[in-house]
UniProtKB/TrEMBL annotation, chain A:
It is found in: Cytoplasm; Nucleus, Nucleolus. This is Exosome complex component RRP41 homolog. The keyword Cytoplasm applies. Keywords: Cytoplasm, Exosome. Residues 18-148, 151-216 form the Exoribonuclease phosphorolytic domain. Belongs to the RNase PH family. InterPro entries: ExoRNase_PH_dom1 (IPR001247), ExoRNase_PH_dom2 (IPR015847), ExoRNase_PH_dom2_sf (IPR036345), PNPase/RNase_PH_dom_sf (IPR027408), Ribosomal_Su5_D2-typ_SF (IPR020568), RNase_PH (IPR050080). Pfam families: RNase_PH, RNase_PH_C. It comes from Liquidambar formosana. GO terms for molecular function: RNA binding. GO terms for cellular component: cytoplasmic exosome (RNase complex); nuclear exosome (RNase complex); nucleolus. One of its GO terms (biological process) is U4 snRNA 3'-end processing.
UniProtKB/TrEMBL annotation, chain B:
Residues 90-170 form the S1 motif domain. Residues 234-246 have a biased composition (Polar residues). Residues 230-260 are annotated as: Disordered. Belongs to the RRP4 family. This is S1 motif domain-containing protein. CDD domains: KH-I_Rrp4_eukar, S1_Rrp4. Keywords: Exosome, Nucleus, RNA-binding, rRNA processing. GO terms for molecular function: RNA binding. It is found in: Nucleus. One of its GO terms (biological process) is TRAMP-dependent tRNA surveillance pathway. It comes from Liquidambar formosana. SUPFAM superfamilies: Eukaryotic type KH-domain (KH-domain type I) (SSF54791), Nucleic acid-binding proteins (SSF50249), Ribosomal L27 protein-like (SSF110324). InterPro entries: Exosome_RNA_bind1/RRP40/RRP4 (IPR026699), KH_dom_type_1 (IPR004088), KH_dom_type_1_sf (IPR036612), NA-bd_OB-fold (IPR012340), S1_domain (IPR003029), S1_RRP4 (IPR048565). The keyword Ubl conjugation does not apply.
Automatic annotation (TrEMBL), chain C:
One of its GO terms (cellular component) is cytoplasmic exosome (RNase complex). Its cofactor is Mg(2+). Its main location: nucleus. GO terms for biological process: nuclear mRNA surveillance of mRNA 3'-end processing; rRNA catabolic process; rRNA processing. CDD domains: PIN_Rrp44-like (cd09862). It is found in: Nucleus. This is Exosome complex exonuclease RRP44 homolog A. It comes from Liquidambar formosana (Formosan gum). Residues 298-307 have a biased composition (Acidic residues). Keywords: Exonuclease, Exosome, Hydrolase, Magnesium, Nuclease, Nucleus, RNA-binding, rRNA processing. It comes from the Eukaryota. Residues 297-340 are annotated as: Disordered. SUPFAM superfamilies: Nucleic acid-binding proteins, PIN domain-like.
Length: 241, 329, 883
């Protein structure tokens, strides 16, 4: 299958180094302490953050830091085939864990001892890159909830098909079975907090692909920062003095 | 960006937009470029060493924000005042909370903080008003004072060494709140002031603006001296022991809230709701103004939550702030 | 820059699934005209001279690809919508167009109109996809017109009448391909034109014929919707039509739904289907099922009688099928149990171009004008094809290539067009060229880029090679090779040492081809494409250039050569104790032929070290062989057919049985062992991307014909396992000396061929090699003549950490496609050998001069697979001619 035409266009008309259109909206869930919707092309994820709040299960309470929990789920209607999805299947458990670890790494948990932070992620539309979209949405929701963080975490994926590194794979490209590198970075600290790939790639190509994914992350970070700043300014001017 | 989720028609949309733009232009003069997001560097003058406050951390010798908010500087202290966040208690804050658990010698209260607050039995005046050690009997009777889900007004006493937050209610003005509505708004909309208890006499209601963003709107209750009350009660009891029916009636009368007051409570509550939707600062002045606006327009209470009123409030707020800045200028 | 337009598509995969995909429209897609000032001209390839820019419609690309390939047609814009349509309809045409577009000598430009913001069109309500695409083509043409202003003329070339009309209405200059070619004033191009069938714009003559006078020869194909529903309801059966190679009037359709093959007798029932087409078949009533033998004779007669008709629609188009019907009526009393049917529709055509010649015919009176001629393909399975030509005189005695365009139900023969001439009929070069073309074998000399990759000659082992730590110096060992006499490309050598502990060290040394063929070089690309060397009667078509094949890589005697070695320590019972893989430098001390090696072993007086080594190895090999047979390896056709070839004329004289010497078996045994050891090693290191070779176990259905035949002669075969089958084949002895061989050959034919595959594509239980009874197998020992071995060499080197794994191994789809290509080339190379024997002047089987034919039993299986078809045909009367 040809994923990049000889003219250098992908199946959806992007060039290899281009991301899909991204869009973010803060405050999608009124009840939550922080919430956001994040879209990467047709992938749409809603994130809601509750907390920091009293730990529900006392035995899990940590006396020196906050407990971070994360729940990822895909809506039945998120894919074309409307499959009934059992809750807590292996894939969602794995993604929940990955996101939890990624977010935990940047939340200043020691500032909120004996409390818990819940992150709920729901995929409304899946078109590849749900993992990345979830992380981006979670970052926005956490920032909206006013939870102190070391840095923003942003994520983006990149793949390698037809001997070309491709940024931000959509579902068709993702299901091609090629390597798919999901990277999460702390843009300010310039550190990688997440790096996932379940295929083999030679080191030099892998570095190229990862570099591309990191460029994507940085682009996402710039966008997220803009959105957050805009949001903060709005809240501030509305509040007045 | 956080949008206001209302169904607006085209003109309303324009009007709201114009009002918000006006608000923006008014505030930008006062506080430009103070907003930061996570991981933004806060420019500081290193010559006279800085104290890093809340919401900041140090990275490679730079002061970096750890949350979104507004940079505030007080002398050498630099901190980020978070906007949308949970309540950060300060000693002496007056707060409104809800009892969620009755535990040995204490109540646990949900106050929109990262943990539940603790109100010790010893930190509150007993109903009989006598200062004494709390006995086991008192402990057993705790539920007669506050039960689960009761709404309580109290004051932040401070953090215990184990990190838990303690409250106190050693005054008549604190205690159980009844016959009214509890509203929750983001805490950043409530500014700390001298006065958080307000009695809106014209409406016969009490308004408590809890620093934690819990706002109580209820029927006005005269703060009575407990000793006097007790005596009255005692004499009444003696008087009315023979005629139980009469007592019931009187009790009913006491607990009965007149419809006008109820309406006023709702009107005020809706005013708070509208203001919180728009993200405006919530003070007693603004609330009364909003209530007045709604009654002057002869709006029904339910209409206050409609989009039209929302736009009107926004316009009015813009106008108000414009006048305020003019005055200052 | 990005605009997002999502659209909704519905795909049917049993159920309706809603697919939402993004479609980004861009403004950075350039027009490709070098005269354009606005666009980025770095990619522009369309010339700026006065010639018009041609925008071709899909039907033009699909039908007139032969014309487009002619250098006279240039400055063509191929729209991406056209490419997509072509890709969906005919992948081979697509590949040809792609090749044209990437050819820097041709001025073909691909314009991605589907992604350009101004030329993207959304399907309107009620508009069919076809209409939308036509509109997209017109919109793109219009865009070109306005974009280039008046500087360059833009011409839409379409043969769709409707499209042309609409284009003209919209102010686009449009022409049909015929009128355009005519305007060029090149009559030779007109021969390449495909002549339109009804529905397209035509020159009117076909339409003018009175339809009443034309008789319908074939029944109309059923519409697709009816076929689909028929298939669902089980009335029709879908399958690939295979025409009997020896009787073109008989074809078989293997149908899954019926679980058996459906026989189709006669052209009438075949209803214009070609060999390889996917067809829908309807079963005939059982009383019309008939025996094949008598009918096939009737068909042959019919074939002889058939006369040439030259003018389409002429009155002599009377259906000949009556003859067949009579034939079948005669035989209907002997109803056979095999279902027969007739084709009702063609689901997918398998048309390509065919080699052959024109049927001899007198020159028509009006010489020089357009003449109609009948083309006879070399492949008997292909019916005669009617073509139009203006150069009849030139073509009559030539081998030519013709492509099929259409087959109307009114005409007896399909119509096609002339593509090119190969050469004179009967000329040896021409004929072998034909064989090569038929089998898609590239026999062109190596390009200069490829030759530039060779090391300078004379080549010698350098001191760097010797100093290289990865390369072990094994020059002190007594290494020798055993090959057929006259072999020049020696890619394997052996050695054997008796160790002090009584064990043996046995080494297999394989030419280190990957030392010279580096991934990504033109040399490597060329070898990937060729896939294998091809051995023909009188020549060999090399996979690698001659200097590599015969000198640099060849492990000749008494010269130092680089090798890749597998060294085992073996007990005298031939148990492998340890295996070592290393790159090495060797110096072969003798290049023996099988006969020489055998003679040495047999001559008890000889006691020199070389002979002792030979004897030791032979002893080990015998044990290994026995063990292998014990495991159930099949010796399916152990006796080889041998051909004696006249040294002068290269014509085969006789066939006989090839004598298998122990020496052959000895070499074979060690090669198998090396291959297996290497397969284990590479799979361990690279589980997802190893190139292995498997031979699938035959299913019971596949062995059905074998069992049936065996049962017919009163023989019981046990096919429960390969071991059981091998044993029962050994017991199958008939009166005929050929009987056992024929049974074995039939057994071979019932099995599928062994294939290369990428280990990531299958699960480990499927890896096994049935014929060799080995759980893992690959090809390692002949890198000079097989590309698969080159890949395996690279994998092995990477597993030893000598080299990095080339990037190609990361791309599993690409690896799979390489494996598929290797299988395809391998099969073709084998077809090309016996293919020659079908030439008219040569009736006997020909040894393909394949010296490797005898090297290991797996090669034998495949090679026999091909020749047995003919062996079978000659002795078939007693047995079954199903395939």
């Amino acid at each position: 299958m040809e994923y990049v035409s000889p003219e250098g266009l992908r199946l959806d008309g992007r060039r290899p180094m281009e991301m899909r259109q991204i869009r973010a909206e803060i405050g999608a869930v009124a009840k939550a302490d922080g919430s956001a919707v994040f879209e990467m092309g047709n992938t749409k994820v809603i994130a809601a953050v509750y907390g920091p709040r009293e730990v529900q299960n006392r035995s899990q309470q940590l006396s020196d830091q906050a407990l971070v929990r994360c729940e990822y789920s895909m809506a039945n209607f998120s894919t074309g085939d409307r499959m009934r999805r059992p809750k807590g299947d292996r894939r969602s458990t794995e993604i929940s864990l990955v996101i939890r670890q990624t977010m935990e790494a940047c939340i200043l948990t020691h500032l909120m001892p004996r409390s818990q932070i819940d992150i709920f992620l729901q995929v409304l539309q899946a078109d590849g890159g749900t993992r990345s979209a979830c992380i981006n949405a979670a970052t926005l929701a956490l920032a909206d909830a006013g939870i102190p963080m070391r840095d923003l975490v942003t994520s983006c994926s990149a793949g390698y098909l037809n001997s070309t590194p491709l940024l931000d794979l959509n579902y068709v490209e993702d299901s091609a079975g090629g390597p798919d590198v999901t990277v999460g970075i702390l843009p300010k600290l310039d550190k990688v907090t997440l790096l996932q790939m379940d295929a083999k790639l030679p080191m030099d190509i892998f570095e190229n692909v990862m570099q591309l994914a990191m460029e994507g992350c940085k682009a996402v970070a710039n966008y997220i920062r803009e959105v957050l700043l805009e949001n903060t300014k709005t809240l501030e001017y509305r509040r007045g003095v | 960006m956080r949008g206001i989720q209302l169904s607006l028609n085209q003109t309303q949309k324009l009007r709201l937009q114009r009002a918000l733009e006006q608000l923006e232009s008014l505030s930008s003069k006062a506080n430009s470029n103070a907003s930061v997001t996570i991981a933004d560097t806060i420019p500081v003058n290193y010559e006279d060493g800085v104290l890093k406050g809340h919401g900041t951390s140090e990275l490679d010798g730079e002061v970096v924000a750890t949350m979104c908010g507004v940079v505030e500087r007080v002398n050498k202290l630099v901190y980020v005042r978070a906007l949308r966040a949970r309540y950060k208690p300060e000693i002496g804050d007056i707060i409104v909370g809800r009892v969620i658990e009755v535990a040995p010698k204490r109540w646990r209260l949900e106050i929109n903080f990262s943990q539940d607050a603790v109100l010790m039995l010893s930190s509150m005046n007993l109903p009989d008003g006598i200062q004494r050690r709390r006995t086991a009997v008192d402990e057993l009777n705790m539920r007669s004072i506050f039960e689960e889900n009761d709404v309580i007004c109290a004051e932040v006493r401070g953090f215990q060494h184990d990190g838990s937050l303690h409250l106190q209610a050693r005054s008549q003005k604190y205690g159980k709140l009844e016959r009214g509505q509890l509203l929750t708004v983001p805490p950043y909309l409530v500014k700390r002031r001298k006065q958080h208890f307000h009695n809106l006499e014209q409406y016969g209601i009490d308004l408590i603006l809890g620093c934690n963003g819990f706002i109580w709107v209820g029927e006005h209750i005269e703060a009575k001296d407990p000793m006097v009350e007790d005596q009255v009660n005692k004499s009444e009891q003696q008087n009315t022991k023979s005629s139980k029916n009469f007592t019931r009636l009187e009790e009913q009368e006491q607990t009965y809230t007149p419809p006008e007051t109820r309406q006023n409570i709702c009107r005020t509550a809706n005013a708070v709701r509208v203001l919180s939707t728009l993200g405006f600062n919530i003070t007693v002045e603004v609330i009364t103004e909003t209530v007045e606006l709604s009654s002057s327009l002869n709006l029904d209470i339910h209409e206050m939550l409609g989009s039209e009123f929302c736009v009107l409030v926004a316009e009015r707020e813009a106008e108000r702030r414009r006048l305020l800045t003019k005055k200052k200028g | 820059m990005l605009q997002s337009k999502s659209f909704v598509k519905k795909t049917k995969q049993g159920r309706v699934v809603k697919v939402v995909r993004e479609h980004y429209l861009r403004d950075d897609i350039y027009c490709g005209a070098s005269s354009c000032k606005v666009c980025d001209s770095s990619v522009a390839c369309l010339s700026s001279n006065a010639s018009p820019i041609l925008i071709v419609d899909t039907n033009v690309v699909l039908n007139q690809i032969d014309l487009l390939e002619n250098p006279a047609i240039d400055d063509v814009v191929v729209l991406s919508v056209v490419l997509d349509e072509v890709k969906n309809k005919n992948i081979s045409v697509y590949n040809r167009v792609r090749a044209l577009c990437s050819n820097s000598l041709r001025k073909f430009f691909v314009f991605s109109n589907e992604y350009h913001k101004d030329t993207y069109v959304k399907a309107m309500v009620g508009e069919s996809p076809n209409d939308r695409n036509d509109r997209a083509i017109r919109v793109a043409t219009q865009w070109y017109q306005s974009h280039l202003g008046g500087r360059t003329r833009v011409l839409l070339i379409t043969n769709d009448r409707e499209n042309k009309r609409k284009a003209t209405e919209e102010g686009i200059s449009a022409e049909t391909i015929e009128s355009y070619v005519k305007s060029l004033g090149r009559p030779d191009l007109l021969d390449l034109l495909v002549h339109p069938t009804s529905g397209d714009v035509s020159m009117g003559e076909v339409e003018d014929l009175r339809p009443a006078k034309r008789k319908v020869i074939y029944s109309e194909h059923k519409p697709m919707s009816e076929i689909t529903s028929g298939l669902h309801r089980g009335i029709y059966h879908q399958g690939k039509l295979r025409v009997n190679r020896y009787n073109p009037f008989e074809a078989y359709v293997g149908s899954e739904s019926i679980g058996d093959e459906i026989i189709i007798y006669g052209r009438g029932n075949m209803n214009r289907a070609f060999d390889g087409d996917i067809v829908a078949v309807e079963l005939l009533p059982q009383d019309q099922w008939h025996e094949e033998k008598s009918l096939s004779i009737a068909d042959e007669e019919d074939d002889e009688e058939e006369d040439v008709h030259l003018v389409p629609g002429s009155a002599d188009d009377a259906p000949r099928t009556t003859n067949l019907v009579q034939g079948s009526a005669r035989d209907s009393n002997s109803v056979s149990s095999r279902p027969s049917g007739r084709v009702v529709g063609i689901i997918k055509r398998n048309w390509h171009s065919y080699c052959g010649s024109l049927e001899p015919m007198p020159m028509p009176a009006g010489n020089g004008g357009v003449a109609h001629a009948l083309f006879v393909s070399k492949d008997r399975r292909i019916p005669k094809i009617r073509i139009q030509t203006r150069q009849l005189g030139n073509l009559l005695d030539k081998r030519i290539i013709v492509a099929v365009d259409s087959w109307d139900c009114l005409s007896r023969y399909p119509s096609g067009h002339y593509v090119r001439t190969i050469g004179e009929i009967g000329d040896r070069d021409t004929e072998s060229e034909v064989v090569l073309i038929e089998n898609d074998i590239d026999s062109r000399p190596f390009s200069s880029q490829v030759l530039a990759c060779l090391p300078p000659l004379p080549w010698l082992v350098s001191s760097e090679d010797l100093a290289n730590p990865i390369r072990q110096d094994l020059r002190h060992l007594c290494v020798f090779s055993v090959d057929p006499p006259g072999c020049k490309d020696i890619d394997d050598a052996l050695h054997c040492i008796t160790l002090p502990n009584g064990n043996f060290e046995v080494g297999v040394h394989i030419a280190d081809v990957t030392n010279f063929v580096h991934p990504g070089t033109p040399l490597d690309d060329e070898a990937t494409q060729r896939g294998t060397s091809v051995y023909l009667v009188e020549r060999r078509i090399d996979m690698l250039p001659k200097p590599l094949t015969e000198d640099i890589c060849s492990l000749r005697a008494d010269v130092e050569r680089l090798a890749f070695s597998v060294v085992w320590e073996m007990t005298p019972e031939a148990e492998i104790i340890s295996t070592r893989y290393t790159k090495s430098v060797i110096k072969s001390c003798a290049a023996l032929s099988y006969i020489e090696a055998q003679a040495r072993m047999d001559d008890s007086r000889l006691m020199d070290p070389l002979t002792t080594d030979l004897r030791n190895m032979n002893a080990l090999a015998k044990i290994m062989r026995l063990r292998r047979i014990e495991r159930g390896a099949l010796t399916l056709a152990s006796a080889e057919v041998k051909f004696q070839i006249d040294t002068e004329t290269h014509d085969p004289l006789d066939i006989g049985m090839y004598q298998i010497r122990e020496a052959n078996q000895m070499v074979e045994e060690f090669m198998l062992a090396a291959n297996i050891s290497v397969a284990e090693k590479i799979l361990k290191h690279f589980p997802p991307c190893s190139l292995l070779r498997r031979h699938p176990s035959p299913t019971r259905e596949m062995l059905e014909p074998l069992l049936r035949t065996a049962a017919a002669v009163g023989l019981n075969l046990d096919v429960s396992s390969s071991k059981a089958l091998a044993d029962s084949l050994d017991c199958a002895v008939g009166d005929d000396p050929y009987f056992n061989k024929l049974i074995r050959i039939l057994a071979t034919r019932c099995m599928t061929q062994a294939v290369y595959f990428c280990s990531g594509d299958l699960s480990p239980p499927e890896f096994c090699h049935y014929g060799l009874a080995a759980p893992l197998y690959t090809h390692f020992t002949s890198p000079i003549r097989r590309y698969a071995d080159v890949i395996v060499h690279r994998l092995l080197a990477a597993s030893l950490g000598i080299y990095k794994l080339p990037t190609i191994f990361q791309d599993r789809p690409q690896l799979t496609s390489i494996a598929d290509n290797l299988n395809y080339r391998h099969r073709n190379a084998q077809m090309a050998g016996p293919g020659l024997s079908r030439t008219p002047y040569c009736h006997l089987f020909q040894e393909t001069a394949d010296r490797h034919g005898g090297q290991n039993s797996e090669d034998k299986i495949e090679w026999l697979y091909c020749i047995c078809a003919q062996v079978w045909y000659r002795r078939a009367c007693v047995l079954d001619t199903k395939r």
